[in-house]
Amino acid sequence: MTGSITDVSGILVGNHQRLDPDASLGAGWACGTTVVLVPPGTTGAVDVRGGAPGTRETDLLDPANSVRYVDAVVLTGGSAYGLAAADGVMQWLEQHDRGVVMDGGVVPIVPAAVIFDLPVGGWQCRPTAEFGASAAAAAGVDVPMGNVGAGVGARAGALKGGLGTASVTLDDIGVTVGAVVAVNSAGNVVDPRTGLPWMADLIAELGLTPPPADQIAAFADRDAELSPLNTTIAVVATDAALSKAACKRVAVAAQDGLARTMRPSHTPLDGDTVFALSTGAVEVSPASDTPAAMSPETKLTTRVGAAAADCLASAVMAAVLAAETIAGVPSYRDLLPGAFTT
């Protein structure tokens, strides 16, 4: 599975980061911010599974609450400090007259989630409002992967994590689903017994082969070290018209993409958070074979949720494969190069 979340028409992604070439663990900048800008009228929801989340405005996205639309979503490094990046996105959106219209101005709706990456860079090296504003201003359809944006200081268990994206089109109903993720998991995305991803179908899709035994052993040794980093955060999006409650179900289903690709996931040590967005551009007519006991939206939500989980799983592996070694945290390509030998 290839593509990008920006294959969902109207979705734009921007990144801003600071990465010192000589960054080492605990010294030097290795942190950044990713912003997902959405078209007006985009519905949003969220599902939080980790036991230690760092978030902003997630209660607002509960289907029981009144605000339906969002203007942007922020994924950022810097732990709770990094939530300041959302201030810059709000300022940028206000300048562009985006937000809930109120007497005297607008209030942009900008949910956000953070990863804990402070041990990679310096503790004082974390995103500010300027990071968010710069990422929003840079938003476009091209989405680089690896050590960019919120993925700069990310770690995937024993390996370097990063930013990844993927998309899929459900051709029979004309719906596109995409995902972008900052992979910073407490669990590994690679089986230490084989040196390959946990999902067999992703192994075939990525063209990977079993690496030599010495490389697997080296990875297993690294795996024995306790990762100080945790939390994977993501956005899944679709152009299918879905209600806020349906978006919530899509976010729930998309979390399966994390459970398939990283073990363990959703632990007390992480704050796994997935936002789901619907631009509403595609109205899907009810299928003639929809069971009487299932509403048309339920059937559509089920299909979109399944696609979102697949996209998120692919985006996770895309992030890890694109990541480069920094600050002594090895990339998959550097630690297990034999997996790419055909």
UniProtKB/TrEMBL annotation:
InterPro entries according to UniProt: ArgJ-like_dom_sf, Peptidase_S58_DmpA
MF-aspect GO terms: aminopeptidase activity
Any one Pfam family match given in the protein's UniProt record, by short name: Peptidase_S58
Subcellular location: Cell membrane
Membrane-crossing segments per the record: none
Family membership: Belongs to the peptidase S58 family.
Its job: Aminopeptidase.
Protein name per UniProt: P1 family peptidase
Gene source species: Mycolicibacterium hodleri
Lineage, uppermost ranks: Bacteria, Bacillati, Actinomycetota, Actinomycetes, Mycobacteriales
